[in-house]
Design a protein that fits this description.
- Helix content is 36%, strand content 19%.
- It is of the alpha+beta class.
- It has a single domain (3-395), classed as Chorismate synthase, AroC fold, CATH 3.60.150.
- The chain has a five-stranded antiparallel sheet with strand order 8-7-9-15-10.
- Helix 1 packs across helix 5 (134-151), helix 1 runs antiparallel to helix 11 (349-372) and helix 9 packs antiparallel against helix 11.
- It starts with a strand and ends with a helix.
- Bound molecules: flavin mononucleotide and the ligand C=C(O[C@@H]1CC(C(=O)O)=C[C@@H](OP(=O)(O)O)[C@H]1O)C(=O)O.
- Flavin mononucleotide binds next to helix 11.
């Protein structure tokens, strides 16, 4: 099974990740990792930090002659901003006593509870690790699972459906025709927009909403639509709570900083409608399994993939650091004070959609590996093809 960990402070020397359990024989190019890192840095509404960083991963182990060798892959990404933080983030001796402690927590960030929990008088260490800078290491780590899935015909893609009040008008026929080519066709199309939206008017409205929020010292969140195509029926299981694939996918998405809601298929609309208008009716005889005219279940029934496209939505809350700050207090003096301000994004929903694509990859890869077993790509592919053929034969008319 694929497991990964990340380490690194936002303004420390580097981020690192160790990915373990990848099958051997997967072809990996530096672009497979670095393209995802570059995509994560895009998006209208980001702050000054993204002008400093040009994220690239150094591979320290686990890949030989362009292929995984089954051993752990260690990755490192330089923080270019570190050179501006060597004193404030010195690992050993405190270089001087003039480094001020931050003592006014930002509502909505990890600041207040983090400093109480870990016993700090300065919020800085909380900011450093709670920061979504960590997602650069996660995206690099997960890009390996994403590449593995691509090599067995499973693609992950996303677009941003709304930012603040703007969006939600993407046409379903456009979406369907992109998804028919595979989820990566959708994602490539979304990548051409600075806010990763599919409709020009949505894009213009979103850019205007971000500009307005920035002008007012405010921030915006939004909603991400995520799709996974090429997934065979029967990944995941209903037999035990910790084998439920819908739960694992939701957990992966909620683990992203600022993601507070996940929807599977059209779950919230489904809750408002009777079963007769919700459940995806079954019809015999499509090429690779039963056919359905709808996909309100989002490709998951009984916590297993049902052969339809997996469709998830994730809600990102607005960024917590406001340039027109909210009420807070100084934890040292206990006096009321407007909250701490530091360099920040106005909106990071487009970046978040790229992170969302990444974090679901190991979840799907592990569900696949549980089904096929196998330690190297060739044997996994052989077993998967056999399984796909079995399913196709079963539903053939
Ligand atoms: C890509 C990305 C960029 C973010 N940028 C910022 C930022 O610039 N300023 C900020 O206050 N929060 C930012 N956040 C959100 C915080 O990291 C997050 O709200 C904080 O760690 C508290 O965690 P929670 O929101 O999950 O409770 C960003 C999140 C993501 C996914
Ligand atoms: C560094 C990244 O995002 C950061 C996430 C973040 C936060 O609080 O989560 C705060 C900001 O950090 P800084 O204070 O250095 O500007 C963002 O730029 C990144 O995505 O690579």
């Amino acid at each position: 099974m694929i497991r990964y960990f990340t380490a690194g402070e936002s303004h420390g020397p580097a981020l690192s990740a160790i990915v373990e359990g990848l099958p051997s024989g997967i072809t990996i190019t530096p672009e497979d990792i670095n393209t995802e890192l570059a995509r994560r840095q895009q998006g209208y509404g980001r702050g000054g930090r993204m002008k400093i960083e040009t994220d690239k991963a150094v591979v320290l182990s686990g890949i030989r002659f362009g292929k995984t060798i089954g051993s752990p892959v260690a990755l490192q990404i330089e923080n270019r901003d570190w050179k501006n933080w060597t004193e404030k983030m010195a690992q050993f001796e405190k270089p001087n006593e003039d480094i001020p402690a931050i003592s006014i927590p930002r509502p909505g960030h990890a600041d207040l509870t983090g400093m109480i929990k870990y016993g700090f008088e300065d919020i800085r260490p909380v900011i450093e690790r709670a920061s979504a800078r960590e997602t650069a290491a996660r995206v690099a780590a997960c890009s390996l699972a994403k590449t593995f899935l691509r090599s067995v015909g499973i693609q992950i893609g996303s677009y941003v459906s709304s930012i603040g009040p703007a969006g939600e008008t993407a046409s379903s026929s456009r979406l369907e025709s992109l998804l028919a080519e595979g989820a990566e066709a959708l994602t490539k199309e979304a990548d051409t927009s600075p806010v990763r939206m599919l409709e020009k008017t949505d894009e213009e409205n979103a850019v205007a909403a971000i500009d307005k929020a920035k002008e007012e010292g405010d921030t915006l969140g939004g909603i991400i639509e995520l799709f996974i195509t090429g997934v065979p029926m029967g990944l995941g299981s209903y037999v035990q709570h910790d084998r439920r694939l819908d739960a694992e996918l939701a957990a992966a998405l909620i683990s992203i900083q600022a993601v507070k809601g996940v929807e599977i298929g059209t779950a919230f609309d489904n809750a408002r409608n009777p079963g007769s208008q919700v459940h995806d009716e079954l019809f015999p005889g499509a090429a690779h399994g039963p056919s359905r005219k709808t996909n309100r279940a989002g490709g998951l029934e009984g916590s297993m993939t049902n052969g339809s496209v997996i469709h998830l939505r994730a809600a990102m809350k607005p960024i917590a650091t406001l340039m027109s700050p909210l009420h807070s207090f100084d934890i040292t003096s206990m006096e009321a004070h407007l909250s701490h301000i530091e360099r920040s994004d106005t909106c990071a929903v487009p970046a978040c959609s790229v992170i969302a694509e990444a974090v679901v990859a190991p979840v799907i890869a592990n569900a696949l590996l549980k089904k096929t077993g196998g330690d190297h790509l060739a044997e996994i592919l052989e077993r998967l093809e056999e399984y796909r053929a079995e399913i196709a034969a079963k539903f053939k008319q």
